[in-house]
Write a structure and sequence with these properties.
The chain is an alpha+beta fold and 780 residues long. The protein is 15% helix and 31% strand. It is built from eight helices and 40 strands. Strands 33, 35, 38, 39 and 40 form a five-stranded mixed beta sheet that branches. The protein starts with a helix and ends with a helix. The relative contact order is 0.04.
Length: 780
Amino acid sequence: MGNCLLLFLWCLIDKSFVSPLHSSSQSRMGKEQYRNMLAHRKHGMMGVHRVKRGWVWNQFFVLEEYMGSDPQYVGKLHSDLDKGNSMVKYTLSGEGVGSIFTIEPSTGDIHALRSLDREEKPYYTLRAQAVDVLTGRPLEPESEFIIKVQDINDNEPRFLEGPYSASIPEMSPVGSYVTQITATDADDPTYGNSARIVYSILHGQPYFSVDPKTGIIRVALPNMDREVKEMYQVVIQAKDMGGQLGGLAGTTTINITLRDVNDNPPRFSKSIFHLRILETSPVGSSVGRVKAHDLDSGKNAEVEYSIVPGDGGSMFDIYSNKNTHEGTVILKKCLDYETRKAYTFKVEASNAVLDHRFLHLGPFKDTATVKVNVLDVEEPPVFSRLSYSMETYEDTPVGIIVGAVTAEDLDVGNSPVRYSVEWRKDSENHFDIDPVEGTLSVIEALDRERHTEHNVTVVATKVNNPLLSSKVTVTIKVLDVNEFPPELAFVYETFVCENAKVGQVIVLCVCVYFPQIAHPYWECLSLKLYLRDNTAGVVTRRGVFRRLEQSMYLVPVVVEDGGYPLQSSTGMVSVRVCTCNTDGSLLSCNAEAVIFPMGLSTGALMAIMLCIVILLVMAVLYTGLRKHKKKDTLMSSKEDIRDNVIHYDDEGGGEEDTQAFDIGTLRNPKGIKETAQLQKIRPEDEPNRASACMSNEDSEDIRAYIHHCLLENSSPPYDSLVTYAYEGEGSVAESLSSIESWVLEPKEDYRNLCDWGPRFKTLAGIFKEHECKDMEKTEN
């Protein structure tokens, strides 16, 4: 009926508007134009001037999808210059001329040769012209017109992006937005209702609804639960013609999924779980699994398990598995069937993520009871300690008990236990054990200097099941018995100055002892010792030592340790009395006093000994040469070639001859200062100097000492003799010859030796020592 109505309207339009309309004015204008055209033909030429258009002109329409057998009539072209005498010819040019459109040249009727589709091309632009049949000249200028394809409702609405998918949270309220869909219609939206679309829902009610104009889909049913139904399929229809009867329609499908929310708490499938485990299971072993089911999905279904604090929960722990949503019970401490046979505790399951919108539904957690039964396993004996430590002396006799170990069977059978020592091939075995009592005893002699301690492995075995045994380590420390005394590290030889002060350290003694022995105790019988870091120092107890009285001290040093039994040794320290300067430097000692420095190496000592041997050889050779000489002791001045004999013709004036040269100065230029000092020493007050030096009472002792020396030596002492042809009488010291020393006056005064200079300092000290000794005797 719609198509018939459109066809009827088109006929009306064609009769009233498309056909040329003849008016009087247009006829007149056509006649005048025709006369002018004939005049031009007569004169044989064509003027160039504007010709007024004489078309009867309108827009043409052609109906699309024409299904008739004859060509479809479009319209008619007509000019006022056309008098109906067939002198005017109509031509047509432009889009589709010849293939789609054609014109009758004499009448101007336009026809469509085939069916047209507005959706393919909505209009065509053509050009028309009226031409004189005889001359072929255009009667009017070429004009352009449009043939518009008139739309009919031949296209249904289409969903270009279907099928669609959408999702919303479960339990969404009514009216919640789901998605929006849009359909398109290829018909002309400006003509009629062919392109006016209306949406409706064909399948999916009462869960969802659709807006007829916008195509927005919304929730229509409250409390939609994903756990009840998760997927919904909704069919939407789009119909043109405003949804009226006869309109074309298209459909699409929307798959709507309900997204999960945490609206369900976890629930255990049963209230009590029974688990079992062996008592020998190591810590960390899996005891069993428990599981709480949650109807939600994803993160909302994750369950966290925990043990409710209680009596039996301290022995176990639980691990939550996010993949399987199970809780694995793990052993936390070691079990003992004999101590406890069963444990009971509660496990709680709760959601990790909570949705506060649904907390009013109740607590999102659940609890269940877990009972764990411990299974008995036969175990080896258990020692009372993890390890044992014992001590014994190294002189402990064989067979003496050092200590004991204890082990027992904790199983229900309480089997007897037997003990043994695990023998080692690579070490000595000094101990044995009683198989029943577990006592350890010595079977070989001990020596602490070889082994300070022994590690013994004791094995305890069950009598009822010899395959079950346990081991323990026994550490036996060997205590030391004081066997070796401490000793001095070296043979010590040192010296002490005659003018040493009280408390002066003269030597340090080092003690050698074994590390296992206590620190030594020092005892000196003659001198005083002090102890520091196993080093003892020999110090003086008095301030004056006299070399003539005693030139050597042998100090016995007793070294004792603090061990048990007490051990000691005695060492000798040789101390020589020597003459020293005021600053403590050594001047001279008795005879061959050789000071060996402490701590010299073996090479240095050998070098010193070699030098001493060379000196002794030279001395022996020199003595042998002297014995072969047959000359007199006092040779003539011409034959005397010794270094200390000076020959000159004039007789010397003795020491009073101060103008003469000093032979010592000539030989040693460094002795100038000493000579100068000697020349300056002149006694002004003889009595005072004599009293300051020495007493005449010592002359007898001096004579006895010199006489003793002369008796010991068979030959005169030439070592430091200076011979002159005539000894001066004016010398203060008079004759210095040792040959005539025995005839000295008994009351000779030797105290003036102090003024003779440094060379006589030693001799002056000897007389001063005798003088002091006599004074002490007098006071006593």
